[in-house]
Structure formats: structure tokens, C-alpha cells
Recover the amino acids of this structure.
């Protein structure tokens, strides 16, 4: 039996989250990874709490780790910090979103069907490959119950209107002017993720963890 006591002061919801990340340079990539770890620090990663996955984007998609791969904050932070930059001139977000739906939010990859599913898309440019298909593929994810939260750095070649098209809610689109400003929105993105539980029944969470000993409380 796993015991999850909600000791984190920020979020006590049960959520499955994937970060889908593209950057135009190695230096930008490093700053984005640090930003993601700031978000991770706001959660308690455990068997019956929050779980995270990571998809690197470029011309193709690479699932760096799945939802059931890591079960504590320390190893998750270390794994994120070690992810190598793939980037490149081409950015194929459509393929990355297909990968999220078909390879991440699946039971054999650790997805919990009673928990909210959240995809945080972090990018500094609009797609260069299959761009016209991307909004319709994002709509397929939303139909499947995946909440897309876009985060954009507008110092690159990024169209905010595109982020509005793929977002679960336009009110959850976040943009900053530089990579250095990402840290200023880490708490906001953490809140967006945590509040995704409002779209699911709280009783469903308890049923999903019926074999566990769980102490739930509202996010603070």
C-alpha cells in the first residue's frame, strides 16, 4: 500500500502532466529546463499524487520519460536537467501532439484515466512543419480530455494567435518577452496545472486511489 500525505503547500490534486518543449537554441533550452523544474518544485510527485512526463520537440518527437517512470521530485528534477537539446530548424508540433495522445496519455505509459490530463506546451516559435494541421490535432487532444496550456517566448518567431488556437482555454495562454522572464510565470503555470482538477469529480480521484491511503486537501 502506498501512502500519500499531501505535505506540499501549493497543490494537493491528482494530475497527469506532460511538458512538450521546443527551443531554437541550446541556451534557450537550458533556461526552459530550469523553468520546468521551478514548476515541478510546486508539486508532490508520488504514486497517487502528481505525475510528470516530458516530450522533446523538433522535426520529430522524443518521449524522454513517461508518466510512470519517476516517482519523486528529486529524480524528476535530475532527469529533466539531463535532457539533451534536439531542437533544429524545423518544428513539428503536430507530430509532438500526436505523440502525446498516442504514447503518453495511455494506460501502459502510466496515464490514470480518472485524473485530469494536462499538456504544457513551451515554445519560442510557431511550427514550421504541418502548421495548418496543428490546430485540428490540438482539437483532437481536447476531445480526448487533454487540457493544453501553452507558454510562449515571443522574442522568437512566435504568433500568439497560434497559441490561442491550440489552448484548452485562451485565458490559460501565457507569453513572456524573454527566456529570463519565464521564472516570473512559474507560479501561474503551477496554478493552472493544479486547478485542472476542477474539470473532474473529486470523488473520481478517491475512487482512482481506492487502494491507497490518501489525505486530500484543496489547493492553497
Amino acid at each position: 500500500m502506498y501512502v500519500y500525505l499531501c505535505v506540499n503547500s501549493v497543490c494537493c490534486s491528482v494530475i497527469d502532466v506532460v511538458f512538450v518543449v521546443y527551443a531554437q537554441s541550446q541556451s534557450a533550452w537550458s533556461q526552459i529546463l530550469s523553468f520546468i523544474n521551478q514548476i515541478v518544485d510546486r508539486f508532490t510527485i508520488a504514486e497517487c499524487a502528481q505525475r510528470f512526463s516530458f516530450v522533446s520537440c523538433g522535426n520529430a518527437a522524443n518521449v524522454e520519460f513517461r508518466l510512470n517512470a519517476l516517482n519523486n521530485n528529486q529524480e524528476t528534477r535530475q532527469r529533466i536537467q539531463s535532457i539533451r537539446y534536439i531542437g533544429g530548424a524545423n518544428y513539428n508540433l503536430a507530430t509532438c501532439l500526436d505523440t502525446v495522445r498516442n504514447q503518453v496519455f495511455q494506460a501502459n505509459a502510466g496515464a490514470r484515466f480518472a485524473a485530469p490530463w494536462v499538456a504544457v506546451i513551451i515554445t519560442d516559435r510557431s511550427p514550421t512543419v504541418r502548421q495548418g494541421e496543428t490546430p485540428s490535432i490540438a482539437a483532437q487532444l481536447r476531445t480526448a480530455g487533454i487540457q493544453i496550456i501553452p507558454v510562449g517566448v515571443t522574442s522568437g518567431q512566435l504568433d500568439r494567435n497560434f497559441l490561442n488556437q491550440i489552448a484548452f482555454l485562451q485565458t490559460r495562454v501565457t507569453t513572456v518577452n524573454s527566456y529570463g522572464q519565464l521564472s516570473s510565470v512559474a507560479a501561474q503555470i503551477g496554478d493552472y496545472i493544479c486547478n485542472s482538477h476542477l474539470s473532474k469529480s473529486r470523488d473520481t480521484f478517491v475512487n482512482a486511489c481506492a487502494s491507497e491511503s490518501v489525505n486530500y486537501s484543496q489547493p492553497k
